Amino acid sequence: MSLWWVVIPREFIKDFLAIIIDSLAYDTSVDVRVAVYEGLQYLLPCAPALNAMQHALKLLGNSGINDKSERVRIFDTTNCKGSQL
Predict the structure, then answer these.
(1) What is the Cα–Cα distance from 56 to 22, expressed in whole angstroms?
(2) pLDDT value of residue 11
(3) CB atoms < 10 A from the CB of 16, how many?
(4) With contact defined as beta carbons under 8 Å apart, do 47 and 58 qualify?
(5) How confident is the model at residue 79 (pLDDT cuts 50, 70, 90)?
(6) Which 8-state DSSP code applies to residue 26?
């Protein structure tokens, strides 16, 4: 998605990220919650996506840090802490 960010319709991006942030980030499967953070890290270097990423990370708040699964907490703190959003 980061490679094609500028050509993907904005409405599709908004709907797609809403599904990821609102549903998948709170899924009952640990693998799905980890995949949310794995996927978001690929958008961080994409300059046109920075505003969307800043908003997404604010919405996620501390949910990754306070997740009941250690795998999600470890992934969140080791991979997203370097972002200055």
Answers:
(1) 10
(2) 95
(3) 12
(4) no
(5) low
(6) G
Which residue from 14, 28, 27 is spatially nearest to 56, judged by alpha carbons?
14
Beta strands in 1-85, from DSSP E residues, in sequence order? none
Q: How far is CA 18 from CA 15, 34, 43, 57, 71, in A?
A: 5, 17, 15, 12, 23
**pLDDT tens-place string over residues 22-63:** 999 989 999 998 999 888 888 888 899 989 888 888 888 767
> Minimal CA–CA distance to 42: which of 51, 53, 31, 55?
53
* Dihedral angle of Cα 46, 70, 24, 57, to the nearest 10 degrees: -40
